[in-house]
Amino acid sequence: MGMHPVQVIAVTGGKGGVGKTNVSVNLALALADVGRRVMLMDADLGLANIDVLLGLTAKRTLADVISGECDLRDVILQGPGGIRIVPAASGTQSMVQLSPLQHAGLIQAFSDISDNLDVLIIDTAAGIGDSVVSFVRAAQEVLVVVCDEPTSITDAYALIKLLNRDYGMSRFRVLANMAHSPQEGRNLFAKLTKVTDRFLDVALQYVGAVPYDESVRKAVQKQRAVYDAYPRSRCALAFKAIAQKVDAWPLPANPRGHLEFFVERLVQQPTADSAV
């Protein structure tokens, strides 16, 4: 039981509006397409929107799991392409600040389903609040989404700096979203590495660029993922290529898998800030 390694990928960005949720959903679909069993967790605990984006109705959410009203299996939604979705509770303030005990219950719930799962993608909230930091530092891979706006690079840097300085994290993967050309994506990555190389001891790896594509807006209006609605669009093809790269990332070395670690680290909150 629980011997199956699960890759936990947190999709984050610092700034709102960089297309994080779109990246999370379409990457999940593209990974399912290469044969991975994927679960997508909406960890935007205050303003959840994955279910809305995909036109799904969540009857129960993570809030119900945490309050002990139901099992994690009871809240999982079947999404397109065979992906499973764990909806968060939109607008429920109590979800934004979970106690360590509630976090532990959440972790146990995830550990119970690790046997039929290969990848868990976590769509974090915008900003660099406690909830974002908890999920990101607990994940095995961190995918930072940036776009061509000065505030996007500044906020991505702020997030990386915080995680590096306060939590010793040193490895981040970067994805350029809504890029008008492959070169623009590389330039964004170069801008970010220029500041991180100068001020931080971190290693950034460039994953690639997702092009700006009108199909995304059309897909959103249809409440479908662009990968599903327009599989031949430039955007969908970019996600296909990125999923193949992600598929080659190393799995957790520990045979117990990564879900238990994910949950344990989620609960081990530093007490320094709570004492202030």
Task: Kindly describe this structure.
The chain is built from 13 helices and eight strands. The chain is of the alpha/beta class and 276 residues long. The protein has a single domain (7-267), classed as P-loop containing nucleotide triphosphate hydrolases (Rossmann fold, 3-Layer(aba) Sandwich), CATH 3.40.50. The protein has an eight-stranded mixed sheet, with helices on both faces. Helix 7 (150-167) runs parallel beside helix 8. The longest helix is centred in the middle third of the chain and has 18 residues, at 150-167. The protein is globular, with a radius of gyration of 18 Å.
Helix proportion of residues, in percent? 40-55%
Number of helices: 13
Strand order of the largest sheet: 3-4-2-5-1-6-7-8
| Main sheet attributes: strand count, strand direction, barrel closure | 8 strands, mixed
The shape is: globular
Mean pLDDT: 86
The run of helices and strands is EHEHHHEEHEHEHEHEHHHHH
| Count of β-strands | 8
CATH topology: Rossmann fold
The CATH architecture name reads 3-Layer(aba) Sandwich
How many angstroms does the end-to-end distance come to? 41 Å
**Rg (CA only):** 18 Å
Structural class: alpha/beta
Strand content: 15-25%
User: Spans with pLDDT under 50 lasting ≥5 residues?
Assistant: 270-276
Assigned CATH superfamily: P-loop containing nucleotide triphosphate hydrolases
